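User: I'm putting together a teaching handout on how sequence relates to shape, and I'd like one worked example. Could you take ATPase associated with various cellular activities AAA_5 from Xylanimonas cellulosilytica, show the sequence you're using, and then write out its predicted structure as tokens right after it?

Assistant: Happy to. First the sequence, then the structure tokens directly below it.
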Amino acid sequence: MSDLATTVTVIDACGRAGVPVLLLSDPGMGKSSLVRGLAAAEGVPCETVLGSVREPADVAGLPVVTDTGVVLSPPAWARRLADAEAGYLFLDELTTCPPAVQAAMLAVALDRVVGDLTLPGGVRVVAGANPPDRAADGWEMSPPLANRFCHVQFAPSVDDWLDGMTVGWAAPPASRAITADPTRAETIKALVTGFIRLKPEHLHTFPRTAEGTGGPWPSRRVWAMLAAALANVRDDDAAARQAITFGLVGEGVGVEFLVWCDQADLPDPAAVLDDPALVDWTGRPDRVWAVLSAVVGWAASAGSVDAWRKAWGPLLAAAEAGAPDVAAAAARPLAACRPAAARVPAAVRDKFKPVLDAAGLTGQAVA
């Protein structure tokens, strides 16, 4: 269970990353009031779509024949959000939606596509649901739909309710989320890829029970969602980090991942590019891989010739310190993202010749 301030932080952090959030609670806990309050506090519209009283075409778009063919005309609520360029789309009572409506929500939930309309990036998707056994004509959530959300157990405290009654529900707690810069984004991504390299069995684990498929579980999609959302949370915000991690990959795998993150303690990739000696390259191979992954990601996001050339320095240091296999694994994506004008450093040619051969860079000029 997350306190109200943590729930607001999770919604904000996930919203910045384009990750939809699902608030789960008993009826009457105030899910819709929270979402409307967030929208009011930000001065943006909130459109509520109650799936139990909608047809699939009300969500996925109504087919309309035009002179140029058939188009999927978006509903009025989607057009209003598109015109506002920001806001909250609240998909309410998700576990009362029949399977056909749940299927129509697949593209809406994660991709924000409604018919032939793509909602602007400023639109955040939040859903609300009661447990199926406590919902009116409840349905279990389909695995594809459940795997598109960060699941948050919503249970405001008595004090949260008293505060809302006193000052109004349009004054939610302040979010603790941050806006990730490129360096932080690559560091968090490296934590995710480093963990999966260490424990590849957790990359995709489909639940064995029907009940489990309606909750959070690890998949390739949610690991990418986790990397994007966690980048918007401070390292010392343990409550929000845990809520997002458990809400996307589940509690069991989530605990393992968070422990690994704390033990990895990755350095700033930009600092490693400037001075590879900052890292003990003889340490744990999984940590070395994560550091190199962050370095490669940072260089790829920078997109400059200088960053790409400098990124080979840490890889060479790791290879010379006794981790050539790990360095070669990191060299493959680095070679693949070479800027057009970049020349392969001379020291790299001999050390990573098989990788360069595979990337077609052996014949390139060196510098």
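A couple of points you could highlight for students: The two ends are 56 Å apart (CA to CA). Residues 285-302 form the longest helix (18 residues).
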